[in-house]
Design goal:
11 helices, alpha/beta, globular, five-stranded parallel beta sheet, about 200 residues, Rossmann fold, two-stranded antiparallel sheet
Length: about 200
């Protein structure tokens, strides 16, 4: 169902939209060769494995189970939890500026993120822009992750807006396509420089 009418609200993903997150930022400190980082993140600490944490499985439990499966990598696996914050490299200034500009215009803004409740407060502390969000759907709290349509329907219910009334911004193509299929306006966040022109084209700024 394609979106039609101009959106009235904006829904933000968190990682790589508001704040930069990349496991390589940590694991390039742990492994000497880029190929070692590639192998570890492709075959051991994969995003499919981490998704359990986003669904609400405690970090310690998820890490311990993987370390038992790959004992030769146990220290590096434990670093996923113990050195989690070293995967971040600050807020994205273009997004922060856009969130402030939308706030000044009175545009309602919300969050929809695959994130553990264990790390939520730390993420919020990275940028004052998070305080501009009226509400947020957190996957670790709800037990469901993007791109499951159920989490988008929950966002509509919780935020009080129909899909066609919201612009959803995410760095994941799969998450974007799931939202588009439900009728959201969407913006695939790849280049921060494209953000403000997109908001202007939608009449939000």
């Amino acid at each position: 169902m394609p979106a039609s009418a101009a959106p009235k609200a904006v829904v933000w993903d968190f990682g790589n939209v508001i704040v930069r997150w990349n496991p390589r930022t940590l694991y390039e400190k742990i492994f000497q060769e880029p190929a070692e980082v590639d192998r570890f993140l492709t075959h051991v600490c994969t995003m499919d494995w981490h998704m359990a944490t986003d669904r609400g499985v405690p970090f310690a439990e998820n890490v311990a189970a993987l370390a038992r499966k790959h004992p030769e990598h146990a220290p590096a696996i434990r670093a996923w939890h113990e050195r989690w914050w070293e995967m971040f490299s600050g807020a994205i200034s273009e997004t922060e500026a856009a969130i402030e500009a939308l706030h000044a215009r009175g545009v309602p803004q919300y969050g929809l993120s695959n994130i553990s409740t264990e790390t939520l407060d730390g993420a919020y502390a990275m940028s004052p822009a998070f305080a501009r969000l009226k509400d947020a759907i957190i996957s670790g709290r709800e037990g469901v992750v993007k791109p499951d349509p159920a989490i988008y329907r929950l966002a509509c219910e919780r935020f009080g807006h129909a899909p066609q009334d919201m612009l959803f911004i995410d760095d994941s193509a799969a998450n974007i396509e799931a939202a588009r299929a439900l009728g959201f306006h969407v913006h695939h966040f790849v280049d921060p420089a494209d953000l403000r022109p997109t908001l202007e084209r939608h009449g939000l700024l």
